[in-house]
Amino acid sequence: MRIPAPALARLDPQHLKGIRRGVEKESLRANGDGSLALTPHPQALGSALTHPNITTDYSESQLELITGVHASPETCLEELLRIHQFTYRALGDELMWVSSMPCRLPADETIPIGRYGNSNVGRAKSVYRTGLAYRYGRRMQTISGIHYNWSMPGLDSERYFALIRNFRRHAFVLLYLFGASPAVCSSFVAGREHELQSLREGTLYMPHGTSLRMGRLGYQSEAQASLAVSYNGLDGYAASLQDALTRPYPAYEALGVVNPGGEYNQLATTLLQIENEFYGVIRPKRVIFPGERPLHALRERGVEYVEVRLLDLDPFVPVGIKAPTMRFLDVFLLHCLLADSPPDTPEEIAQIGRNQHRTAAHGRQPGLLLERGDSQVTLARWAAELLREFEPAAEALDAAHGSTDWRDALRAGQALVDAPELLPSARVLEAMARDYDNCFLDFALGLSQATRAKLMALPFSAAQQARFAALSEQSLQDQRDIEARDSLPFEHYRQQYIAPERLGLSRAAVAPALASV
After folding, report:
1. Could you say which DSSP state residue 122 is in?
2. d(CA 383, CA 45)
3. Per-domain residue ranges for the chain?
4. Which sequence ranges are marked TM in the entry (predicted)?
5. Using the 8-state DSSP alphabet, how is residue 35 labeled?
6. The pTM of the whole model exceeds 0.85
7. φ, ψ for residue 56 (rounded to 5)?
8. What is the pLDDT of residue 217?
């Protein structure tokens, strides 16, 4: 969809210069032999509950490194680099795994769940992850990626949702251009049905795959497959989520909240335990107050930014993402914002899902067909058409910044459409064949070791080390303070937290809103 001329005319250069972005980057901690590190979160990294830059995602072994909000890709990447440098100095001989698909995994029940201390909020985070383990399996949670948080001043919730609808329609382009997970260690799919082909012993792959992380092997379940969440507006989106957060799900009811031994299985028996369990390629977001439910924050104060969630780690880049990729995302998101964005329908939502899975598993297959409305079109043709339509957005960003950086990033993307052998997913398979005898583990381990050496060799001043060390110490004190203030029994806390009224709308009021979805 092209950007209408009036939308271009209304573009305010100051708004474009006001675009802000931040990165959240996940990486497994791995041992030198390519196995998952089963050690606790390093004490030198502070508290995973309260540290502003360094936490864990699903597993105790899965680091999540978080930047602040930045006006340029360069300053964002500079902060991400410093966080990496400090983190590596706390890891000893352990590595940060550079691939989105995990290292060698132990038995499912051995993968450690994140631990966040003895406070009610810390316990709730661990119980939530225990619920994820029962619902999806622990292996599925060890996949890592990069989240790109993006905002532009002057946007209301309606415009953010228009952006989100177009993003979902065209997300296959990002999977194609930046997918970097066409292969996996066979330990990841042990005991699971899959369509992967054997490349060699211990390594499975899809010959034309782009992002196995975003395909059927990723964060999927029968329960979530039953959701058809609409993005036609905040009211309908919130009603869809509230329904999933308050609707009992038979399989989870059978599991129960607490097991006979008194240990918690999950936070709730509803289809979703909390909002973050709903997986999407992009999310509307709002910074929350302490203890506030994200859905309540959205309803009360509207969308503040969007979180792009489909990026694989780039294993060839030390911090997993580079500036041209971030600029391409700026162009992509700006185009999605400015182009016409008709309402979605259940039929289109299902079609988007099929296109995503097809691109993830077969994206580089010559002549691959995707569904576009009532017809089919090759992925390559559709992607080329879209990237031509992105040109006005790139030109507007360059004009606002007095540069050619965004047009250069777009041209680099256009070149990849014309030369699929240069796509990251193709480069992964080529490097595996050339240097690692087609072994995924050896490939990812080799690049993880090289990345560690590169990051450790870069200058890192005593002042920088001291600043991060102080943040770690402060985070540990903050966790102790939270634990000391707790007075409510955990079960009371859990019941209060999941209470429907804390979502900002009574369940009785949800039905009319759902009727319009």
Report:
1. H
2. 42
3. 5-515
4. none
5. B
6. yes
7. -125, 155
8. 81
